[in-house]
């Protein structure tokens, strides 16, 4: 982004309320996970005629910062196209939002294609170090009208909800079916300056989606710039966060969902069952005792078969027991180790007889 290459004027900002910053800090990845989906709505005029469409998608992504560091985040995309009074207009939004709902990068494009004086507005926001750098480009026709760059200190932006982060916050509020009271957030106004924003619960209403009547939860978001007229939007959500209707106060067009989507259900994790330990008396259990006898006979048969196939085993054990009873050593383990040592596969061949004055390697370790 070009704005990061040259120093940008530092803008002073207002402060969000403590309730707003606390609300954002309590939203975790487990609550945001069900909010990652795509949806689309149709824009209709006052007469009910379709004049455009809106699409919104949120999915997991990885954002590469300066220096090569990567951060898991959310990629938010939104786009709208419409025709009002035969004039094409639209907007697009692409942003990377951290799991703490902080804006890492956001690109916003709005256009109105008047025949003689088409207007085009682009706003780029990117986090660089400890600052949030903003660049605005306004074009009229093919000529650049205005370019402006400035920056904000990230330390002063606690409680900021950008346009992209707002889409996630609204889905969280819709799933909670509640809106925090007496909280003031920070937001960008139409000039990309920091202002205040509030959310207000409007209660539950009935809405017809296709041929099905559903209950929707309504939330109003109001953005109040320091100068100019406040702007407000009303959002009507299904129980899982899908948007059923969106209205910009004062606009003749309305966004509607035409077909009821498949609602997202979050499976509740059931606690693991706890089984009581019961004493096991296998001799009184007929089945276990029968298995014990079968295993015993199987082992005995296998041992007898092995001994028959290796007659040298009986002779070897007989020699060991005879010598053991003759010597009657106090340390039976060391005596056995010395007796069977010449039969070891890894032991180098040597004399069967050992000198009486030679130290035994087993007496210091057994």
UniProtKB/TrEMBL annotation:
Ciliogenesis-associated TTC17-interacting protein N-terminal domain sequence ranges: 20-252
Subcellular location, record wording: Cell membrane; Cytoplasm, Cytoskeleton; Nucleus
Q: Which residues cross the membrane?
A: none
Whether Oxidoreductase counts among this entry's keywords is no
Q: Which UniProt keywords apply?
A: Cell membrane, Cilium biogenesis/degradation, Cytoplasm, Cytoskeleton, Membrane, Nucleus
Source superkingdom: Eukaryota
GO biological process terms, semicolon-separated: actin filament polymerization; cilium organization
Among SUPFAM superfamilies, the record links this protein to: Dimerization-anchoring domain of cAMP-dependent PK regulatory subunit
Give the protein's biological function: Plays a role in primary ciliogenesis by modulating actin polymerization.
What protein family does this chain belong to? Answer: Belongs to the CATIP family.
Output this protein's name.
Answer: Ciliogenesis-associated TTC17-interacting protein
The species is: Chelydra serpentina
């Amino acid at each position: 982004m070009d704005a990061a290459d040259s120093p940008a004027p530092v803008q002073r900002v207002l402060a969000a309320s403590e309730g707003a910053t606390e609300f954002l800090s309590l939203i975790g990845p487990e609550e945001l996970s069900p909010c990652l989906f795509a949806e689309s709505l149709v824009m209709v005029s006052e007469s009910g005629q379709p004049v455009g469409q809106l699409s919104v998608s949120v999915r997991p992504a990885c954002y590469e910062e300066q220096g090569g560091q990567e951060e898991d985040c959310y990629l938010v995309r939104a786009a709208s196209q419409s025709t009002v009074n035969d004039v094409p207009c639209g907007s697009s939004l692409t942003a990377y939002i951290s799991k703490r709902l902080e804006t890492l990068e956001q690109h916003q494009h709005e256009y109105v294609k008047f025949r003689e004086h088409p207007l085009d507005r682009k706003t780029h926001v990117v986090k660089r170090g400890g600052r949030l750098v903003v660049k605005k480009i306004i074009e009229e026709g093919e000529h650049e009208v205005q370019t402006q760059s400035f920056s904000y200190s990230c330390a002063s932006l606690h409680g900021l909800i950008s346009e992209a982060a707002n889409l996630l916050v609204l889905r969280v509020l819709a799933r909670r079916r509640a809106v925090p009271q007496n909280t003031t957030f920070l937001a960008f106004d139409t000039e990309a300056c920091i202002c205040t924003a509030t959310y207000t619960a409007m209660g539950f209403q009935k809405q017809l989606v296709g041929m099905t009547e559903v209950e929707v939860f309504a939330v109003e978001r109001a953005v109040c710039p320091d100068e100019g007229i406040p702007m407000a939007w009303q959002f009507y959500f299904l129980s899982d966060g899908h948007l059923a209707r969106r209205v910009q106060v004062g606009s003749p067009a309305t966004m509607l969902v035409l077909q009821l989507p498949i609602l997202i259900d979050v499976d509740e994790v059931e606690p693991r069952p706890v089984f009581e330990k019961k004493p096991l008396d296998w001799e009184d259990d007929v089945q276990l005792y029968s298995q014990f006898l079968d295993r015993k006979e199987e082992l005995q048969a296998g041992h007898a078969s092995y001994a028959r196939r290796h007659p040298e085993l009986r002779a070897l054990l007989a020699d060991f027991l005879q010598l053991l009873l003759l010597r009657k050593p106090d340390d039976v383990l060391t005596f056995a180790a010395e007796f069977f040592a010449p039969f070891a596969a890894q032991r180098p061949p040597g004399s069967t007889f050992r000198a009486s004055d030679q130290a035994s390697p087993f007496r210091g370790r057994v």
